[in-house]
Input
Amino acid sequence: MLICYNGDMLDIRFIRENADLVRDHAAKKGYSVDIDTLLARDESRRSIQQEADKLRERRNELSSQLKSQPDEVVINEVRALKEQLAGLEQSYAEIDGEYLRLMQQIPNILQSDVPIGREEDSVEIKKWGEQNSGAIDHLDFAVKRGWLDFERGVKVAGTKFYFLKNELALLENAVTQFALELVMKKGFNYLTVPHMVNSRTAAGAGFAPRGDLESNEYFIEGEDLALIGTAEAPLTGYHADEIIDESDLPLLYAGYSPSYRKEAGTYGKHTRGLFRVHQFNKLEMYAFTTPEQSAEMHERILAIEEEIWQAINIPYHVINIASGDLGAPASKKYDIEYWSPVDNTYRELTSCSNCTDFQARNLNIRVRGNDGTVRTLHTLNGTAVSLARSLVAIIEHYQNPDGTLRVPAVLQPYLGGRELL
Output
């Protein structure tokens, strides 16, 4: 079941009417929010706004009188009203700043079937393929073949940067072309996207602002720009401040771009080789839908991700992500984790999230219904292929004892028919 609401970030009207629910869901996501102070600031904003509106109405009445008959008493009252309004506007600006700061701390509401808890409380909902073991680590395999160079990446840019070379670079291109053709057949329209976004777009999509210690974004000094961590950010902003006709929904996009990430807050996570790096290429699916379409679209995007990895023949399972690992924008999220025959465990490969109206509300993206009513639409995103991790999974599952690499059958047409690398 989806809980729908209307307003800024979360709709303030929804928060007023469901304060305990919002507080509870934020806590389940791991966010500490001050709902009581927020509602107090909201009440102050509305009270000041109402008082200011009355003063403006009175000022306008008096100004109309002065046009026909100047009067010193009226002139003095208009001046006094102007001073009162200036004071109210200053008070409003101060309270509104704190109000917006508190609003921006409140995450999206959870869907009813999201598991409650931390990362380890996520629930496996399906599994595909056979588990095997005994492979050589992708980093050792690729370095030995001369396909991957982290040492020169460090020399050029720093730790966790790298060069892909020769057959491995060609294999990445093959994965991209295969996935792109598949998602386009599913109705997604291909876009390349800006590699930088402004702060409004980044924050609207739900990414941490400049100065946040947990931010994964690289910011451009002296400019209101950040390098994107995923094409999700510019795709979210693509329709900012637009009203889309319901008959045009769903709108489906596939955005290709590099992804730049500091990988802040990854202490203790698996980071070997290509698994967690500062730059990688990615093909992202993105959907704008009506509120009624989004739950079905979430399952559709997941099915496409599964189709990609079944076609490449990589075993995986799907998990319903627990509340404490969702992040602010997502109302529900699925991860596909591939089976690693090196580590004998599942490792994250792709994800897809239903952000309901959280991102669209931030960026004022709305839908005009067939009856003429206007409301906030829903947004969803999903990884078609994250190329660095895709290469890890393929190397682990397609390597031969003699050091060659078998090419998955579906990728061979994009490598001139080659079966071995």
